[in-house]
Design goal:
4 domains; alpha+beta; 4 helices; six-stranded antiparallel barrel; four-stranded antiparallel β-sheet; conserved putative lor/sdh protein from methanococcus maripaludis s2 fold; Elongation Factor Tu (Ef-tu), domain 3
Length: 445
């Protein structure tokens, strides 16, 4: 009898423990009641899903390339005596990259400069000869009573005119004396004297003519000398000009022994060492490669079905695996006129500012190209989304309760995010205490 009572008592205690445990688990795990068996209510804030226009994008892929790329080579042969750069160095346009041995070039320049001085001196001498010849011409013209543009009329020469006047007078006296001799009015001796005067006047006149002709011949000779001297000046000037060209070429030869950076950028390759002999006539004679990376070119392959969405001036944003959390902006600058037939894609180029130098030529990037016309989208605050792994959830508030919904997200604009699927305009979503919410729980705003 006692054993039966003990067994019944033990069974009663066990049943009590089980019932108590079940009640405790229900009280602790149920969202519908609290310690006083009252429904649990979570305080929240909420926001309305709104429709607003947002920029739209389509994605493509491409590779980054330098804005400008140049291989640097010397234009003259020579031995390298100095190298002022290395791979990775930043150089400004005009910086000295390499110096070659310039001793032979400077010797050649000195010789030509000396020759130029001699040629210039020859020009001065020839010009002095021209001036002397012109002075001789002017002197002879003055003696003949001519100006620079006057014509030579021998009778107008003063000496010739005076001699002619004396001859005419002597001829008249002789003629008159001949008549007087016949009439006996003068003596024979007087006649002979006047004849002698006439003969002397003739001789003086002829001497004046000869002298005038000689002086005119001297003018022609002096004029010819002027022309010869002027030709000498031209020849000397031509020699000076030719020597000046040679001096300029020699100066360039000296300058070419210094190789300058043609653009500003980073050195991506160095092929030069002191002591080496280089020549522009040898294959692959470059000494360095410089790339400009302050602005990069993004070559984008656009699928054929999307080419109608592309035009110059469109904005793009790109991401690389090196900076997955950062977007870089750019602008489409060039569009190819034809498609790549094998891939059926259109190649476009965008310019991407790279002032920080984070992006490198050769990097692969994913590109989002903004469309010119925005599209309406359902938008909610970012804080209304709870992310669990690959799932995005929101809690729609309806009739005082929170209802869990999976959503597909899209573009982020400031603190708002696009909901592509799962919500409609006007839905109220919880924006706080998301971790305390479960499907169907009562809420209070």
């Amino acid at each position: 009898m006692r054993n039966r009572r003990s067994i019944a008592y033990t069974a009663l205690i066990a049943l009590t423990v089980v019932v108590t445990a079940v009640g405790c688990r229900k009280s602790a795990g149920s969202p519908e009641s609290n310690a006083n068996n009252q429904p649990l209510i979570v305080d929240i804030t909420a926001a309305e899903a709104v429709v607003k226009p947002i920029p739209t994008y389509f994605e493509a892929t491409g590779n980054l390339a330098s804005d400008e790329h140049t291989d640097v080579a010397a234009s003259v042969a020579g031995k390298i005596v100095q190298v002022n750069f290395d791979v990775g160095s930043f150089v400004q346009k005009g910086d000295v990259l390499v110096r070659l041995d310039d001793r032979d070039a400077r010797i050649r320049l000195d010789q030509l400069q000396s020759q130029l001085q001699q040629s210039q001196s020859s020009v001065g001498q020839a010009e002095a000869q021209v001036e002397q010849a012109r002075a001789n011409v002017r002197q002879a013209q003055a003696q003949l009573g001519l100006d620079e543009n006057g014509k030579f009329v021998i009778g107008q020469v003063a000496e010739v005119g005076s001699a002619k006047a004396n001859l005419d007078l002597a001829e008249a006296e002789y003629t008159r004396s001949s008549r007087l001799l016949e009439t006996g009015d003068i003596s024979r001796s007087q006649f002979d004297q006047r004849k002698t005067n006439r003969d002397q006047a003739r001789s003086a006149y002829q001497t004046a003519l000869n002298s005038a002709n000689q002086r005119f011949a001297a003018i022609r000779t002096a004029t010819a000398q002027v022309q010869t001297a002027e030709a000498g000046v031209k020849a000397a000037q031509a020699a000076v000009k030719a020597t000046q060209s040679q001096v300029a070429a020699a100066q360039k030869g000296v300058g070419d022994t210094t190789v300058l950076a043609p653009i500003s950028g980073y050195v991506s390759e160095r092929v030069a060492n002191p002591g080496e002999y280089i020549s522009p006539n040898t294959p692959n004679s470059k000494i360095a490669t410089i790339v400009r990376t302050s602005t990069l070119r993004m070559k984008i392959d656009v699928p054929e079905q999307s080419i109608g969405k592309i035009s110059t001036g469109q904005s793009i944003s790109l991401q690389t695996t090196a900076y997955p959390d950062r977007n870089f902006a750019g602008t489409i600058a060039r569009v190819s006129p034809s498609l790549v037939t094998t891939a059926r894609t259109l190649t476009v180029e965008a310019e991407v500012p790279n002032t920080e130098g984070l992006l490198k030529p050769g990097q692969f990037a994913t590109v989002r190209i903004a469309q010119l016309k925005p599209e309406p989208a359902v938008m909610i605050p970012m804080k209304a989304v709870r992310t669990d792994g690959d799932n995005n959830r929101v809690f729609v508030i309806k009739d005082g309760a929170a209802h869990e919904k999976l959503v597909q997200l899209g573009t982020v604009e400031d603190d708002m995010v696009q909901v592509k699927q799962g919500l409609v305009e006007g839905d109220m979503v919880a924006t706080s205490n998301l971790n305390a919410l479960i499907d169907g729980i009562l809420v209070r705003q």
